[in-house]
UniProtKB/TrEMBL annotation:
GO terms for molecular function: enoyl-CoA hydratase activity. Keywords: Lyase. It comes from Agromyces bauzanensis. This is enoyl-CoA hydratase. The lineage of its organism: Bacteria, Bacillati, Actinomycetota, Actinomycetes, Micrococcales. CDD domains: crotonase-like (cd06558). Transmembrane segments: none annotated.
Length: 271
């Protein structure tokens, strides 16, 4: 079954974010191809609303985040919208970008950023908030904010070092240079590469189908621990893992999974 809704709840005549459901899969599309899907404040608000809504819907086992148009995932923040801002309102836009990233990370289901084309500035930051980045051979990545007298504002200084290491992140942020798919894969930024958009979307769907065959509660707990533990000291991160392991023992899925293993049968998870 397929259904869709505008992320802004129908308030905008031409919503920039579309959220569609295909049974257990959700597809979130940023649909501003004329501006290379740039992240204005209104687009960020629609993204926040869309992911908040998905968090309340039953049966979401995975999400694809894509950009429309074929030239860019997201080419960056909407610079025209930022140009006239004073420091206070600019900080509010940054806080909105961080809330969007936090909403994606809080969703129990994994989210795959499907990058086909540019993922620059805010676009790369949005992709970094997802669980995985899959990309086509035509993709390019970068944090070029310093070229505009700015710094990353939607989490780039936080999540990029976690993804590729501090030294590489500093180099990309300080120089503002772009990298192609070869370097992005080698650096560990991109989990899987694909020849074109069709192969990208098929591969992402295949991954989420494999995820959906597992325990939803276990995947959700694992994501919670991974997000919370990353960057923490070892003792704090270990304590979070123990807490998650304990929580798994409270679920019906844990009992079903262990019983099925001992009985040598396929588990029937509650979902």
């Amino acid at each position: 079954m397929t259904m869709s809704h505008a992320a802004a709840g129908g308030l905008a005549e031409d919503p920039a974010v579309r959220v569609e459901r295909e049974d257990e899969l959700a597809i979130v599309t940023i649909d501003r191809p004329a501006s290379l899907n740039a992240l204005s404040a209104s687009v960020l608000t629609e993204l926040e609303t869309g992911f908040e809504r998905l968090a309340t819907e039953r049966g979401v086992r995975g999400v694809l985040l894509v950009g429309a148009g074929g030239r860019a995932f997201v080419a960056g923040a909407d610079i025209r919208g930022l140009a006239g801002l004073e420091p206070g309102p600019a900080a509010e836009v940054a806080r909105l970008g961080h809330r969007v990233a936090g909403t994606i990370e809080a969703l129990p289901a994994p989210v795959i950023a499907c990058v086909d084309g540019f993922a620059l500035g805010g676009g790369l930051e949005l992709a970094l908030a997802c669980d995985l980045i899959y990309a086509t051979d035509a993709s390019g990545f970068g944090q070029p904010e310093v070229k505009l007298g700015l710094i990353p504002g939607f989490g780039g200084t936080v999540r990029l070092p976690r993804a590729i290491g501090l030294a590489r992140a500093k180099e990309l942020i300080y120089t503002g240079r772009r990298i192609g798919i070869d370097e992005a894969v080698e650096a560990g930024l991109v989990a899987r590469r694909f020849a074109d958009r069709d192969a990208l979307l098929a591969g992402a769907r295949e991954t989420l189908a494999q995820v959906a065959a597992n325990s939803a509660s276990a995947v959700g707990i694992a994501k919670r621990v991974l997000v919370a533990a990353t960057g923490r000291p070892t003792d704090e991160a270990s304590a979070l893992e123990v807490e998650g392991f304990e929580d798994a023992f409270r679920t019906d899925d844990m009992r079903e999974g262990v019983t099925a293993f001992l009985e040598k049968r396929v588990p029937r998870f509650a979902g």
